[in-house]
C-alpha cells in the first residue's frame, strides 16, 4: 500500500484516477482505518486529502457556506456563524462518535462511507446541501442525496472525490433540527435518524419543509410526502401526528443487531415529530 | 505454624484508612506494564485462525502454503498440541477450546495459528491456511438446545445427575438440585402465588485489556511466559499439563492486568503461544484482537429461568421453586448449578427447591463473570419477589425483611449461616433517603438483593523485613483492583509500622509457592489472611531477636505498637525496640528477618447487598436512563474504603450495562453479529449517574480483621433492581434481559414482558 | 511495501521515524518508539485507551496513520508529568482512586487534559459527555468524574 499526500486538487484526482488497484481517499480515517483493520481489506493506495489547499477551511460565501472536505466535525461546532445558521446540521455532525472521533471525522467522509445510518447525512439532505465533486474532468455539483447509492457504495466515479460541502444561506424564518435514536447516550450508531428543515411565513405557517430519514432503508430517505403533511400548517398536533405517520410509512427498515424493523418505523415517527417541533421553534414559530 | 484466624475486635490504625496506592504513579504515567507491553528479544508475532462456522467438522487442514510465506516461522494445529490429558475430561476440554481437534464448536473457535516475523506476514499466512469444513447444523439458543431433537454438540454426552442414566445423548450436560422442605405442601399454604419465566442474554466481562502473552520455550527445556491473568500459578499448571512440561520448568510472570472480572481465570491462547514458540524456537507474542476477545473468550451464560413463589397474606413466603437453564458454551461446566445455589440464598425459607440444567450450545465457552451465574438467578427471583410483594400489598423492602435469612438460617443451598448482612442491608435501604425521595413523571424506583459466597483457597505469602526496617511483601494473588494497597495496609497494621514502609509486589511462579486464582472475591480476603499470618511469623522472629539482643527469655518479650517490649519488672530500663532497630541489627542477631505463610483460607464470609435504583423511561422510544443508584453492601471490614467503594460502583455499572443493553447477538448462521465495543454496548460515562455507596461492616468471624470478599456481590442485584424500577415506571413486568429499547417498546405494545 | 519517513514533534522532542504506509500511530508509538503508555483496547476507535493529543485535539491513535504524524505535534501520557512533578489530573486520579486496573487511565488522562485545556470549568455533564469515548469497565466512572472535576478546581486555583 502507498500513502500519498497531494497538495492540490489536480494532484489528488490524478493520483486517484491513475491508481492501478483499489485507491481510497483518506479524510478523518475514522471509517477507513477501521476497515483497514480487517484481514479482508486490501488497498493499493490511500490518498490523504488533508494537505490539499482549502480542504480544511469553512468559508462563508454569498450563497451560504462552503465546508472543505477535510474539516473535522469538531471544527463545525466551533464556527459560530455556521452554528447560528445551521444548528441542526452541526448537531448532527457533532453526534458522530466521541470527542476523539470528532477531532478527526468529516461530513464528507460520513457521506462517502455511504452507511445508511450516517448521522450528518439526513441533516444535510434536509438542509438542501450540495457537494462539489472534483474529478479528472473538472468539477460538478450534485445534491447530497445523490451521492450515496447503497450501503457502502456511492455514485462517485473513478478519480473523483468530494472537495466541499455547500450549504445554502438559510431562508428567512427557517430552522433545522436533527435527532437520532441510540440506546446509549453517546458512542452509538443511529438506530433511526431524522432531519427536518422548515421555513415559515410571517404568520407562523409552514411554507416549505424538507424531511430526511436515516437508518430506515439502504440509503437516506428524502420523505417528500411526510414534508407535505406539515406544509400549510402551524404544526398543530394533528399535523405532527400526520407527519409521524408519514415518516413511519416512508421507512422501510430491516431487523438487525441495532434494532427491529417495527421499532425503527415507530421511532422514525416519534423523532420526526420532536425534530419538527425544534425546527419550528428555531424558525421563530410559537 | 498454626494460625488463629478468629475475628478479634480492635481499634485499627492503618486498616480503614485511604492511603495512595503503591502502583498509582506507574499507572498514571504510562509506565505500568500490561500484557501487551512486554517484549522479548527476537520475538515473533502470533496470530490465531478461527472458525467462521458455528459448528463444523474439520475435514482437512493444509498449512503448506502458509508455511511457505516469507517470514513465517511456525504454523500449528491441533496436531501440535497432542492430547496429554490422560483421561482428564476437563483438561481435554480446555485443550480442545484452545485449538479445535475434530470439530469447530462455535464461531471464533481456534483452528490453527501462525508465528511470523511481523504482523503482515502472519496475516498473509492466516489467509493461506486451507481448511475444509463440513458444516453441521448448529444451535445457540438455550431452550432450543435443550430439546431432544436439537443438533448435538457432543454425541458422547449423556445428562448427568439423573436416574436412571438416559439412553440418548443430549446437550443437557448435567442436572443439579438444591433445597429442603416440601414445596408442594408449601404452595398449598400460600394465599398468593407468582409464577413467571425469565430470560437473560449472554454478556461479556468486557475488560478493556485484551488477552495478551509473550511465551518462550527455551532450548534448555525451560519455558517463560509473561501474561495478563488473574492467576499465574493456575495458568502455569494448566499450560504445563497441556504441553507436557514439568511445572517447575515453566515460569509465569503476571503482568499488570487490565481488568478480568473472571474472564482471565481461564487459559485461552496461552498454550497456543507456547506451542508456537516451541515449534519456532523463538519467543512468541500473542495478543487477541477485540473481535477475538468477544468471539472466543469468556462470556457468561445466556439463561432461561422459571420461578414460582408463594406467600401468605401476612407476607411469609411458604414455598419457592426455580428451574434454571444456563448455556455453558460447548463444554460442560457448573454454571446452572451456581445459579441454583444462589437463587434463594437471601431468604429464610421452609420449603425451597432449585434445579439447574447445564446446556451445551454453539457459543464460546462460558467463563466466570463476577459472581458467576448469580445475577441471572437474582433477576428472576427478585423480580418475582417484587411482584409477589405487590400482589400482597406489602412494601417490597418490608416483604424482604420479613423473609430475610439471618444467623442460624439453613440456606437454600445447604449450609447454616453465621452472622450475615442481608437484614442490615435491607434495613439500611429502608431508612435510606433514596428510598423516600420523590419521583417525577415516567420515573420508577426498584430495589433488589443479591448474594455471593466468596471463596478463600490456597495462598502463599512472603514478608521480608529489610535491613532499613521497611518491609517487602510478596504475594501470589494478582492485583486486580488495588489489593497491593490493601495488603500493605494489613501488613502495616499487624506489624505496627507506617503504610509507606511496606512495599507489596506480585511475585512470579518461580519465587513463591502456589496460589489460587484471584477470583471468588478472594484477593484481599485470602491474601490478607496470609499476610497477617506472615506478619505474625515475622513478629515471632523479631521477638526472638530482641530477646537475643537483651539476653532475656523470649517469653518475656511482647509485641506492641510496632515494638518489641520486655515484659516484667526486672526489665524496666530496657527501651522498646522498633522494627527499624531490630532490622538494623539483624545481620548480627541471626540474619535476614522474614515471615512466611502457606495456608488454605477457609471461611470466606458470605456477602449480601441491596441496591436501589431510579429510572426514567421514555415511553415513546423505550429508552431508559438511570437517574439515581445506591449500593448498600456488607464488606465485613473495608480495608481500603476507596477501593471497596470502587468495587461496589464498578459491579453496579456492569450490572446496569447488562440490564439495559449488553447482549451477544447471533445471526441465523450462528455467527456473532456484534463482536466490538460499538455494538456490544457497555455503559459509557454519559450513560451513568454518580453511584452512591454505603459500606456496612458486619465482621466475618473467620477472619482476624473481619474481612469478607467485596468484589463480586455488587453485580448481582442490578438486573433485578433495574427490572423492578422499569416495571414500576411503565406498569408492565419486564422479564427479558437486556431491557433494551425495542424490548421495552414491544412490552408496552403487547403488554407482555417480551 | 515502501516505508514512509516521518518527522514529528513528540512530547516536545523532535522525533523521526520510518513506518509502513498502513501502520497506525498507535503501533508506531508502541512498537517503534517504545512508548507503551497508549493502550490498544479495541483498535477500532471504540474504547479511547489509545488516546493521544495531536495538534491540540484528542484523537484515537489507533485511527491515525503513522504517516499522518508528519509535521504534527503529538502529546502522549509519557509527556504529561513535568519530570517527577505529576500533572494535577494525574495526582487527582490517584487521590480519588479513579483507577482500578488502570489500563484505561492513560487514555482518560489525555482526554481529560484536552478537556481542561479547552474548558477550565466543565460541569459534571460536560465531563461525562467529553469522556464518553473512553471506556472504563472497572470504576463505573464515578471516581473518574470526581477526579477530573477536582483537578479542574485545583487548576483554577480553588481549594478542593
Ligand atoms: C467509534 C466510532 C464511532 C462512530 N460513531 C458514528 C456516529 O455516531 N455516527 C456516524 O454517522 N458515524 C459514526 N462513525 C463512523 C465515522 O466516524 C463517520 O462516518 C465519519 O464521519 C467518517 O468520516 P472520516 O472523515 O473519518 O472518513 P474516512 O474514514 O476518512 O472515509 C470514509 C470513507 O469515505 C471515503 N472518503 C472520505 N472522504 C472522501 C471525500 N472527500 N471524497 C470521496 N470519498 C471520501 C473514504 O475513502 C472512505 O471510504 C463512528 C466511527 C467510529 C470509529
Ligand atoms: S484502541 Fe484506539 S480506541 Fe480502542
Ligand atoms: S480502571 Fe480498569 S478499565 Fe478503567
From TrEMBL, chain A:
InterPro entries for this protein: CO_DH_flav_C, CO_DH_flav_C_dom_sf, Diverse_Substr_Oxidored, FAD-bd_PCMH, FAD-bd_PCMH-like_sf, FAD-bd_PCMH_sub1, FAD-bd_PCMH_sub2, Mopterin_DH_FAD-bd
SUPFAM superfamilies in UniProt: CO dehydrogenase flavoprotein C-terminal domain-like, FAD-binding/transporter-associated domain-like
Coiled-coil features, chain-numbered ranges: none
Family matches, as PROSITE patterns: FAD_PCMH (PS51387)
Gene3D superfamilies: 3.30.465.10, CO dehydrogenase flavoprotein, C-terminal domain, Uridine Diphospho-n-acetylenolpyruvylglucosamine Reductase, domain 2
Keyword line: FAD, Flavoprotein, Oxidoreductase
Molecular-function annotations in GO: FAD binding; oxidoreductase activity
Residue ranges of domain FAD-binding PCMH-type in the record: 1-172
Pfam family, one: FAD_binding_5
Protein known as: Carbon-monoxide dehydrogenase medium subunit
Protein species of origin: Lutimaribacter saemankumensis
UniProtKB/TrEMBL annotation, chain B:
Transmembrane segments: none
Molecular function GO labels: iron ion binding; oxidoreductase activity
Cited Gene3D superfamilies: Aldehyde oxidase/xanthine dehydrogenase, a/b hammerhead (3.90.1170.50), Aldehyde oxidase/xanthine dehydrogenase, molybdopterin binding domain (3.30.365.10)
All residue ranges annotated as the Aldehyde oxidase/xanthine dehydrogenase a/b hammerhead domain in the record: 29-137
Domain of life of the organism encoding this protein: Bacteria
UniProtKB keywords: Molybdenum, Oxidoreductase
SMART domains per record: Ald_Xan_dh_C
Keyword check for Oxidoreductase: yes
Keyword check for Oxidoreductase: yes
Stated name of the protein: CO or xanthine dehydrogenase, Mo-binding subunit
From TrEMBL, chain C:
Domain 2Fe-2S ferredoxin-type residues, every copy: 4-80
Keyword Nuclease found: no
Keyword terms, alphabetized: 2Fe-2S, Iron, Iron-sulfur, Metal-binding, Oxidoreductase
Matching SUPFAM superfamilies: 2Fe-2S ferredoxin-like, CO dehydrogenase ISP C-domain like
PROSITE patterns: 2FE2S_FER_1, 2FE2S_FER_2
Molecular function in Gene Ontology: 2 iron, 2 sulfur cluster binding; metal ion binding; oxidoreductase activity
PANTHER family: OXIDOREDUCTASE WITH IRON-SULFUR SUBUNIT
Protein name per UniProt: Carbon-monoxide dehydrogenase small subunit
